[in-house]
Amino acid sequence: MEEAITESFLLRRRFFNDGLSRIRVNLSNLKNIPTVVIVDGGCSAVSYLPFNVMSITPLVDQHDADLRHGNKVTSVICQGSAWNNNLALPELECKFISVQAINKKGVSIQPTTEQFINYLRDVANETKGVSQVWNLSFNESEPYYSNEEISYLGHEVNRISREFNILPIISIGNVSRSNNIRLCPPADCESALTIAGRCADENGMATTPCSMSLRGPAPAGMKKPELSWFSTLRMIGGVIDTGTSYSTPLISSIAAHAFKSLKEPTPDLVRALLINKAERCAHDLRLGWGSPWKEGNNLPWYCDEGTVTLAWNSKIRAGFAYYWNDIPLPTEMLEDGKIKGEIILTAILKPLVSELGGENYFATRLQCSLQSISNDGKVKNLLGTMKESKEKELQSRQELAKWSPIRHHGKSFSGVSVDNTKLRLYARIFTRDLYQFDMSSHHELSEQEVSFVLTFKSHDKDSGIYNSMKQRLGPKVEVGIIEKNIDIDNTI
């Protein structure tokens, strides 16, 4: 039995104490848990103040700050599973850095957007090296005035996150009397994971979309939300509340642990990993690609039994075809020359974006495909249709999300024939409107960063697929987590 595959963790018991208003705070483990920057109304809860690892000068004063909301979000970040032991959640705890920047509703004097952005930039500089995960459980009260343009707030949060190597986790927003569909800024931030809400069934499992949650799509061809999770939660004081403000910190917590667990994490690699491990292959405007964990599974940075995941970061130049050759198709997924099982490919481009924020916000796009090559040299696309460049522009934007920086392809195979057990991954970056950056050709563009996560799933959980892949790749890969499991390589 291989520890790399069977690594598991303890789940909580199935009970729910409605009368419990306090959760025991364990301070002995603080040095071993990751930190999340919480941009919210601050934290005044005495029980959680020991979890606050840095003092940040507030943007708004104590009287006007929405401390009640901040305390609730903080309690979910720190101990979301402990407060909600009736739900299927992994047992994760986090420290935090409280950034007191959001006022209560009805406060007449608010910081300007420019003051808010400048403040966030200062916070990013001050917290650099302490945490790369930011929880933003707030939204503007109304959608941006244009369906096709990126909001000023979304664009500026994106600029800060890219400059300081931050992964923002942002709520998509809640339904209101004046808006029951369109997401609210900064949920249109390109580099963020935008989070919607989900309901729970009687067994505490994630099911249908939450009726309080706004939905996608996002402007400029982005697929939002990326993920969703429980939005009706119990939190500090035993209060039960509903909103995407509370599903968001659940994702922030698991993202922070991903950063801590991976050897060479980047914001886009963590994003790609969480999306890759969610349960949906097709994107849904209300659920995104689903939730990044379900009961019975290992945490996303561990391979489940019967699966193997390859993850890596690369830099590639626009206009050139790149191939990662000789990726083994696990023999455990072959039966009479046909693929049996599931393959999921997630790739995220760090795109070049326009300062104009319009419909053509993205000046670069990624096209990728997992391919098999027959013995006579013919190419078969197993994942990724490669039709983005062939279809008419409008159709390709609408049906294939042509300009979305996230490419996510998944399929369950039952009878696709292949001639051999070697696959290749193809990727190419395309450009447009480079004149706005004073460039006349893509040859002037520097290398672009792309994160890839590729998962193979056998129908047989006892197949030994992990060891098989590791042996066939040999020294080309290394274990990619601090302890064990995901293989990261730049030279497959």
TrEMBL record:
Q: Which Pfam families match?
A: Peptidase_S8
What is a GO molecular function of this protein? serine-type endopeptidase activity
Q: List, for all copies, the residue spans of the domain called Peptidase S8/S53.
A: 63-290
Instruction: Give the protein's recorded name.
Output: S8 family serine peptidase
Q: What is the lineage of its organism?
A: Bacteria, Pseudomonadati, Pseudomonadota, Gammaproteobacteria, Enterobacterales
The record's section on InterPro entries has: Peptidase_S8/S53_dom, Peptidase_S8/S53_dom_sf
User: Which terms under GO biological process does the entry name?
Assistant: proteolysis
